[in-house]
Amino acid sequence: MTFLAHIRLATCAMIFLAMMVSAPAVAQKLGPDGAPNPTASVTSERNLLEQFPRAEGRIDIPDTKAAVLIQPAGRTWDYFHEVLLHWGGAIVILGTIALLGLAYLILGRLRITAGRSGQKVLRFRAFERFSHWLTAVSFVMLGLTGLNITFGKIVLLPVIGPEAFSDLSQLAKYVHNFTSFSFVAGLLLIIAIFFKDNIPERVDLEWLKQGGGFIKNKHAPASRFNPGEKAVYWLSLAAGIAVSVSGFVLLFPFFGTNIADMQIAQIIHAVVAMLFIALILGHIYIGTLGMEGAFEAMGTGDVDLNWAKEHHDLWLARKLASEDRQVRPTATPAE
Amino acid sequence: MARMKFLCDADRCIDCNACVTACKNENEVPWGINRRRVVTINDGKPGERSVSMACMHCTDAPCAAVCPVTCIYPTEDGIVLHSKDLCIGCGYCFYACPFGAPQYPKVGNFGSRGKMDKCTYCAGGGGAEAPGSAEEFEKYGSNRFGEGKLPLCAEMCSTKSLLAGDGDVIAQIYKERVLKRGYGSGAWGWMTAYHEGIEV
């Protein structure tokens, strides 16, 4: 029985202690004049922002986004935009340009080893070239006007002054917004036209093993597109879709989105765009300066027979076989 | 040098929207633009509080930092002003603003928001117009500040919930209130806007 008595005593003591502790809590609910403290049940701003990313409430005006009272994430987005994006974007783009410059110094222009044959093979049909250049011209316009929004105030504003820069940026904004449509059209065409030839295949491994044609005296076999081109295709497809979707979200602000969605859309748009620009800089380099005989594939559509042999032997073989005849000498020799 | 701030004592705000009306009338703000608004937290529940909110004229204003044409800047009194001549209506200031202060005359699809408009602390505009001129009023609204007056929203507040003026002075007024009445739900937005709360 002494055991039970002990428990009873302990329980009483705990209840007493609990009352002692809770007494000040009750007292806190009363003001100095004895009136109940009206803020006792108020959620403080700190609590609110610890529980939710934003403090939101009811609003009397039709503008629903005004119901967000405080969104500290705005400062985070400011940090992303002014610090991370500026440094990250500058490093990615200038770094890519530096790497390409280095590649040019070390590797130089990749020549057609056997020299030009003077015979031409059709590589890209007119409609394929149209799709490419529609996307390409749109991309360059979007890239320049987009970079202006991020870097213009650092690079261009001090040179041309605030009024001219403002007028230019306003124009650039509209160019950016409306060129998006031709870019998406071109992107969809490219995705559809080149899809089949960009599916990875077994020979791609062999191409990689042979150093992708960058190592002299090693032949890297490839079909219509080699793994490098396939990488550009698939990365452009992914990046293109990401910038297009996020871009359209930004084009229709707060259309089914809230402030956090808009910030995320802008972050995705900016980050993907910077990487996309770096990728396309590499694409432009290898298609112009980096390789002899590459540009004319998208320029006139015809490539030199020896170029095709060296870079796309399997494609050439299949093409010649399907044409079921020898390559005709063209009426006008190249160069 | 004074550092101008706003402080809304949420324990006094009765959601009467007189500050909103005063702002719209004093500045002749176009239809659809609300430089100031009252948001009610926990509407209809115990502990409901209303807070009157406009531009807080932040320290290290994020809107000014993200503006691609740098048209937003703080004055020497800490008031954040902008030039509508330079604004390109990109909407970035709204994404960066912790308080939803920037307003645009249009919905903004295809980048057609128009020039940003926001609370100017009744201090006119940040453009080239002469202070107190009709051109300045047309574009930015009233310049009471140039006449030595404080923003009309705070001046008209029926319960003196909304305080405007030098940050140290209004913080002191708020502290005394809290000490006297014994409670206070804090200076809403101060941590985010000015990197400091008001310790009582």
Task: Please give a structural write-up.
The complex is a heterodimer of chains A (335) and B (200). Chain A has 335 residues and is mostly helical. Chain A has helices spanning 2-28, 45-51, 73-107, 126-155, 157-160, 162-194, 203-209, 227-251, 259-287, 295-299, 305-311, 313-323; strands at 55-56, 68-70, 120-122, 302-304. Chain A has a domain at 116-138 and 175-323: Transmembrane di-heme cytochromes, Chain C (Fumarate Reductase Cytochrome B subunit), CATH 1.20.950.20. Chain A is 66% helix and 3% strand. The N and C termini of chain A lie far apart (114 Å). Chain B has one domain (4-194): Alpha-Beta Plaits, CATH 3.30.70.20. Helix content of chain B is 26%, strand content 13%. Chain B has 7 helices and 6 strands, in the order βαββαββαααβαα. Chain B has helices at residues 18-27, 62-66, 92-96, 134-140, 152-156, 167-181, 190-194; strands spanning 4-8, 37-41, 49-53, 72-74, 80-82, 162-166. Chains A and B meet through α2, β1, β2, α3 and α4 of A and β2, β3, α2 and α3 of B.
What topology emerges from the helices and strands here?
The complex is a heterodimer of chains A (about 325) and B (about 200).
Chain A lengths: L1 H27 L16 H7 L3 E2 L11 E3 L2 H35 L12 E3 L3 H30 L1 H4 L1 H33 L8 H7 L17 H25 L7 H29 L7 H5 L2 E3 H7 L1 H11 L12
Antiparallel strand pairs in A: 1-2, 3-4
Helix pairs in contact in A: 3-9, 4-6, 6-8, 8-9, 11-12
Chain B lengths: L3 E5 L9 H10 L9 E5 L7 E5 L8 H5 L5 E3 L5 E3 L9 H5 L37 H7 L11 H5 L5 E5 H15 L8 H5 L6
Antiparallel strand pairs in B: 1-6, 2-3, 4-5
